[in-house]
Every structure is written in structure tokens, then in C-alpha cells.
Amino acid sequence: MTKLKTQITILFVVLAFACAFVPAFSVEESEAKSLWDTCVVKITPKCALDIIAVVFGNATISDSCCHELVQEGKVCHDTLIKYIADRPTLIAQETQYLKKRDDLWNHCVSISTTA
């Protein structure tokens, strides 16, 4: 019984936390679905995480992920990174992230055209 109470308490805390922060991360439902259907499904989850790590951290990207990024397209790349960079916790450094986004795109295009 104690284990069940603990699990219910954890579930409640997680739901409360999610509800508190979802408005800050929400986009129009139709817009989010459109982005998902047209953009995110074009790249592997690993490459998506690598791209985010490059733009929002100091990681490097593999040539194969660069190829996926270029295939995804500039509009998708720009839009998805912009949505992430617009989050309240990141907005103060948005200019830096958008520059890194553009630098990554240019790097990946140069790799894709030489391969």
C-alpha cells in the first residue's frame, strides 16, 4: 500500500510540474503537428539530439547527421531551432543560438556538397 501511495504521489508531482511548464513550451497544436509531420520525422532521433547539442551546447556533429540535416531542409532547421531558442529559459541567448544554428547549417551544406 505504501508503494502505491508513493507512486501516486510521484505521478501527481510530475503532472503538476508538467502542467505548470507546458504553457511556456506550447505552440499552436496544428503548427506543432505540422512541424512534426514535415520536419522532425526526416531525421533520426540521435541526429536531432546531436543538432540540439551543437546549437545549445559545445558538441560536434557527424558527417552523416549533417547529411540528414541538409535533407531535412533549411526551413525546418531554422524553424525548429527558433522554437527551442524562444523558450523563456533560453531567450536571453537567442542571438547566440541562432548564429550557431546558421553556422551549423553552413558547415553541413559544405560537407554535403563535397561528399
From TrEMBL:
The keyword Transit peptide does not apply. Transmembrane segments: none annotated. InterPro entries: Prolamin-like (IPR008502). Keywords: Signal. Residues 38-109 form the Prolamin-like domain. Pfam families: Prolamin_like. Residues 1-20 form the signal peptide. The keyword Signal applies. This is Prolamin-like domain-containing protein. It comes from Cardamine amara subsp. amara.
